Amino acid sequence: MKVTYYGHSCFSVFAGGKNILFDPFITPNDLAKDIDVDLIKADYIFLSHAHYDHIFDVERIAKNTGAKVLGNFEIYNWLLKKGIENSYPINPGGKVDLDFGSAKCVTAQHSSSFSDGSYGGIACGFVLTTADGNFYYSGDTALTVDMGLIPKFTPLDFAVFPIGDGLTMGIEEAVEASKLTGVQKILGVHYDTFGFIVMDHQRADQKFKEEGLKLYLPSIGSTIEL
Fold it and tell me: Residue ranges of the Metallo-beta-lactamase domain (predicted)?
């Protein structure tokens, strides 16, 4: 599967013949200043929770591309008010069949609110199955033993975990999450964007290597195969 990293927790996966985008936060991110948001392709957009650093560019990209946008019920209602009618509500425990495969919504341990302070619904992660492989995006979360249930239902080719610490898992917790989910390949996200989540890249790489795991930290705008 081809994975393109757009900075922070925003990435896209080309799988099942579709461009699947996650948590679009690009234009306010100085580290992603060279990314032209209007050139991003998306058939689907998944939103893990309502914090602005995960939804800032969704309205613009959704209206540019006509992508179907999926998020929790509160986000779904917010999208409708924004005029994004091609949206779909999905909460933890829910699963939906789509033309690339399927998407299962799972629990994430994190807060969720819109920029005005209103309730943003429960934070989520997503498990996607496609003709080209399966993967898990945890969203912003703490380490939970629930992660161990995921491979019981879906064998994974890779996982996407936050590793910047502070507001989410750090390096050591992400290593344990990798073990729980049975993955060998991990895309790290949610680091370096803000001062309080700046990460030691060398230390992160070493910790994963010690456990026989491969951590990917691609440069912003680059595409890798996973």
Answer: 7-190
Beta bridge partners of 71: 89
Using CA atoms, how far apart are residues 35 and 80, in angstroms rounded to an integer?
27
| pLDDT per residue as tens digits for the range 4-38 | 999 999 999 999 999 999 999 999 999 999 999 99
3-state secondary structure of 192: coil
* Selection from 15, 28, 31, 86 nearest residue 55 by Cα: 28
Kindly state the greatest CA–CA separation across the chain. 48
How wide is the angle at C-alpha 139 spanned by C-alphas 216 and 85, nearest 5°? 120
Domains, the chain, ranges and CATH? 2-219 (3.60.15.10)
Is the full-model pTM beyond 0.85?
A: yes
CA atoms lying within 13 Å on the CB side of residue 106: 24
